[in-house]
Amino acid sequence: MKTFKFLPIVLCAFLISCSSLAPKVNESDINAEAEKAYAEIKAKSKISNNAEWTAMVNRVADRIAKASGENFKWDVILIDSPEANAWCMPGGKMAVYTGIMPVLKTEGALAAVMGHEVAHATLRHGMEGYIRAKQQSYAGALIAGASIIGGQVLCKTEECRKWSAIGGVAAGFALTFLERRYSRGDETAADKKGQIYMAEAGYDPAEAINLWDRMNANKGGSAPPEFISTHPSDQTRKKNLNAWLPEAEAIYSQAPQKYGTGAVIR
Mean pLDDT, to the nearest integer, of 1-17? Predict the structure, then answer.
């Protein structure tokens, strides 16, 4: 086990030396890599067999994607896992975890979550930093060949370690996608754009506000002070969403079809 003491130094040195050899990458390259990583995750994750939830996730994803107006290669999966989580990769590859469904309680709250995650992708948040991270971590062969070691040493989150254990492109992608942290400004922008997306998709934008009460209740009221967190506090998010609600409601009033808060999640 003493060998692990030196692994961060060795891996970091390898990453730095490889960065000078890394090819230039752009958004198309990243989207293509995301597509490959997504295929690996999709193949090796446990996909939910809950037909009702799957149908809901599919229709919400389709409506939010259309509302975004972005010409991505959209796809979504419902992963059978207890985490209260969802994400959208660059290029429109999405996942929702079954653990978040009971927390959300309504289809409209799901639309708020997916709207937020899609907004991160459509707003290209941190794209330059992502490209830089990709170039600096051009050690995909190393991470893929020693994914367990790479995940133990370099991943900070359990989700990253899971992707690293999958190996292949997913392992390297975990470090450049999952380990990035959006700024508070990015989170706020995604909240606002996500509320617009859900309104355009026909979901009551007020449900985005109710979502944060449920998320806070799920955490047991515990959260780090906002000044030490990269994310705005739940209360700040609610305050912002309330302030933006008139604009979102005006958009909602023009939606061709209105679903309100949608179906109840059972």
Answer: 44
How do residues 79-101 score in pLDDT, each as one tens digit? 999 999 999 999 999 999 999 99
Residue 9, CB half-sphere, CA atoms under 13 Å: how many?
Answer: 4
CA distances from 70 to 117, 126, 197, 198 (A): 14, 18, 11, 14
Contact at 8 Å (CB) between 147 and 40? Answer: no
Query: Is 113:95 a contact under the CB 8 Å cutoff?
Result: no
Residue 226 pLDDT > 70? no
Long-range pairs for 250-256 at CB < 8 Å and ≥24 separation?
251/196, 251/199, 251/200, 251/205, 252/199, 252/200, 252/202, 252/203, 252/204, 252/205, 255/199, 255/200, 255/201, 255/202, 256/202
Domain ranges of the chain: 41-125+182-253
Round to whole Å and give the CA distance between 142 and 95: 26
